[in-house]
Amino acid sequence: MYHLAKSIYFWATSKEGGSFPLPFPPISSPPLTTSSTNSLPRLPPEYSILLLGLDNAGKTTLLSTIKSLYNNSSPPPTSSKPTVPTVGQNVATISLDDMYLKIWDVGGQHALRSMWTSYYDVCHAIVFVVDGCDVGEGEIDTLGRNDTTENEGSPTGGRLEECRKTLESVLSHPSTANIPLLVLANKQDREDCVETVRIKEGLVRRVFEGERGGGVRDSRVLPISALRGEGVREAVEWVRSRVRWNREGRGPVMR
Ligand SMILES: Nc1nc2c(ncn2[C@@H]2O[C@H](COP(=O)(O)OP(=O)(O)OP(=O)(O)O)[C@@H](O)[C@H]2O)c(=O)[nH]1
Ligand SMILES: [Mg+2]
Q1: Distance 112 CA to ligand 2 centre (A)
Q2: Predicted model pTM
Q3: Which of 20-24, 54-58, 76-80, 146-150: highest mean pLDDT?
Q4: 186 Cα–ligand 1 center, Å
Q5: pLDDT tens digit string along 44-103?
Q6: Residue nearest to atom 8 of ligand 1 (CA)
Q7: For 90, which of 41, 105, 244, 252 could close a Cys bridge (C-beta 3.0–4.6 Å)?
Q8: What ipTM was predicted for this assembly?
Q9: Helices 59-70 and 232-245 sit at what angle, rounded to 10 degrees?
Q10: Which residue's C-alpha comes closest to atom 27 of ligand 1?
Q11: CA gyration radius, the chain
């Protein structure tokens, strides 16, 4: 009963009908391919990407930008048309030359993070979005240290410590073992955004070196501006190559 209710919830809160398969491929479908042993046309494989990160990091903005870049029908996001905090999920499928990417954007508010685990078993890569303007001002050495107050705020005024604990919790879950991880230092268009190296050293390296880093995995940190679309194609390309490389570890869905 619980699973049925959860499925209905996913379906009801999803713009594409949740985890139920699409009735038809998207308008700009990749070309049909033909198997060497079977002359019937075959659709490219589908991989699922999970967008995670704290509330206000820019996940929904990123999904909108990806849709506008890859699915011509969607308009790009603008700062004059603000997003609302996601409660539940958004999902979009884009078609690339050799695969479909089904991208799940889930709410990052504290109370919603327990829902993330429901996606771990089916995702092929995790994209963790960090608000590069909300990580604090301190030196790299002090960023990400475990000397925070009860409300998880960083002593330097940002949310890097909350990011660290959240990322650790994602990576230490057994279902995310070996799954490629892309960390995006978002909002690079803003002057108060920290350099990507701070997020790399103060967050990602500390998580990987800690006890809850979740073992060895393919990973990268990239700067982006989800709002302006800068760096977004590079991010999608990284994900595309990594899910292919890891297809023996976690195979795609064949449509
Ligand atoms: N300047 C700037 N603002 C951005 C960028 N990306 C997102 N924002 C803004 O950040 C705010 C939060 O963006 P969302 O995409 O809603 O954040 P979210 O991660 O989906 O938040 P939740 O749904 O609560 O988890 C919005 O006001 C966006 O316009 C960016 O690259 N640059
Ligand atoms: Mg959102």
Answers
A1: 11
A2: 0.84
A3: 54-58
A4: 9
A5: 999 999 999 999 999 999 999 999 999 987 888 888 887 899 999 999 999 999 999 999
A6: 58
A7: 105
A8: 0.99
A9: 90
A10: 82
A11: 18
